[in-house]
Design brief:
Layout lengths: L4 E2 L9 H9 L5 E2 L18 H8 L6 E5 L3 E3 L13 E6 L10 H9 L10 E2 L6 E2 L3 E9 L8 H14 L12 H13 L2 E4 L6 E2 L13 E3 L3 H6 L4 H9 L6 H38 L5 H23 L16 H13 L1
Parallel strand pairs: 1-2, 5-9, 10-11
Antiparallel strand pairs: 3-8, 4-11, 5-8, 6-7
Helix pairs in contact: 2-4, 4-5, 8-9
Length: 345
Amino acid sequence: MIIPYCPKGTLQDIPERVRQFHQDMNAPIRELTRELEFNRRRYNKPYLHGNKILAVAERRDTEFCIFIDTDTYITCPMDDLRLFQPDAVAVVPESVAGFARRFIEVWDATYAIFGLTTPEDRVKMLRTDREHPPYFNAGFVAFPEVTPSGDRFGELWLDTAMTLDFDDSVDDEAKRPWLDQASLPVAIARSGARFEELGPEFNYPVDGKDFPPGPQIRMYHYHGIERLEEADHTAEFENLLVDSGLFRSLDHYLAPLNEKRAHAAVFWQKIGDEAASRREMKQQMAEADRSEDGKFKKLLQQSKQREQKLRKECALIVEANYYDADWLVRKPAEIEKVAVSTSSN
């Protein structure tokens, strides 16, 4: 069973074509039942990473679950028995220790919030090889729904993250954007489960030190299609897309995104021109007679207003505008019919 989640209140914003695609693939999109309530005392943006914790906390009729970030693709079945243990959470170390870095006192303060001490276990970060207290990439987490403590793992992770987020004993600056990963090993410790350390093949970063990797990789974590393209590592991705029968090529798959980029680039160029124009006006203003300040201030204000208008118009450019009826080579249902017909022969 595959369950894609979207934030609460956003399902209606997802294009019908995208929703139908997931429906046809027997993976209808589910809307989260809760909204983010993370601490915003020192942040002017919501903590969007928290949506993954909310997704893990959702109730499912399964004994085990594997959470996977959206910016990933899987190359083979996730059937390793280490992913399905009632007393273990399977995870992959992070590339670098972003949360506490080398400051063990940050971990000590974090675990102390829950009456725990920092584990003596050490794991190597994938990129630096430095050893740190347990710290994992939250883009891949395999867990039993109910842990040895009797708690649902998702609820325990959410409670851990929320408690840490509002506790003043750990500086707020250390919590963004790492709150999900800072709270993950603590949640594992609270659950009574152990962590099952997996190799990077289960959550392979595009910037991995052994790049390009071999055929043993099970899941790529590419952190955005741009990084995948920059790393010149799109061949496996393209093969998966073509083999699905839905796309002719990677370019075909990316066509809506590339059209959006091209359209948005026109606006970003104009926005850049406005900024350059203001810099020039400010220089002229500094060199001109003070009696002309009023004229320059008016011109600067007009430029800012034009930029604000351009930014609002640019924000309306989304990929959904470019998905026409012929985007897919064939619909999933049509492919299924062909497969059934072939197997019957």
